[in-house]
Amino acid sequence: MAIEAPLRTWSDETLLREVAVEDDVAAFAAIYGRYWARAMRVVEVICPREGFDSDRVVLKAFAVAWSERHSFIEDTIRPQAWLFSIVRDVAMSWCGDAEIEKNDRAASPLVGFLRAFEDEAEAGGSADESAAVESIVHAMRSLAPKQRELVALSFFGELTPEEVSDLLRIPVNSVRERMRFGRMPEA
Asked: What is the pLDDT along the chain (187 residues), one digit of tens a residue?
């Protein structure tokens, strides 16, 4: 399913304003199309357990984002920070569980609608880009859990150190220090 041309040009702020104020499902689908792949990477890095169903966690996170859409306040937080705080919280809550409830996909009729936008978003990257991203995810899995989460939010979520600091409730200098060690080559 294709995202309508005008929605493709709208900023994240405009799309989320439409979602929060007008309950605009098409605008939410455009946000989903832009961010689901990055959300998958964040979840895969935060919860690197073998057999963990990252796809379900991302769908659940977007279902939570839809249900909490009225909490987005444009002047107080960037759309990415708002969305990835939800993705992170859902991932952390499910990370220790063996399985997400089987009926979570059916819990929101929005999920089926959003699924149609994954192929379009995926089509944007080349095979080389996909291989590079997989290599980055693999490297991130070797980091300590706290550092892995922070680097995933910064890299895939494109959050600023200040936004990561607010989300993780740690000092911004700690974020910067952990990021510095996350970038250091292995000895």
From this structure: 455 667 878 999 999 999 999 999 999 999 999 999 999 999 988 888 777 888 899 999 999 999 999 988 878 889 999 999 999 999 988 886 444 443 343 344 455 555 555 544 555 556 666 777 777 777 777 788 888 888 889 888 889 999 999 999 999 999 998 887 655 444 4
Q: Kindly give, in sequence order, each residue whose CB lies less than 8 Å from that of residue 128, ignoring residues fewer than 6 positions away.
A: none
CB 117 within 8 A of CB 3: yes
Dihedral (CA of 165, 53, 125, 26) sign: negative
Among 137, 150, 171, which residue's Cα sits nearest to residue 92? 150
Phi, psi values for residue 148, rounded to 5°:
-60, -45
Structural domain contains residue 172 = no
d(CA 150, CA 179): 7
| pTM exceeds 0.70 for this model | yes
Q: How many domains does the chain have?
A: 1
Q: Is 39 part of any domain? A: yes
Residue 162 lies in a domain: no
Segments forming the whole domain that contains residue 23 = 10-144
Contact between residue 147 and residue 178 where contact means Cβ atoms under 8 Å apart = yes
For residue 68, give both structure tokens: 């909490």
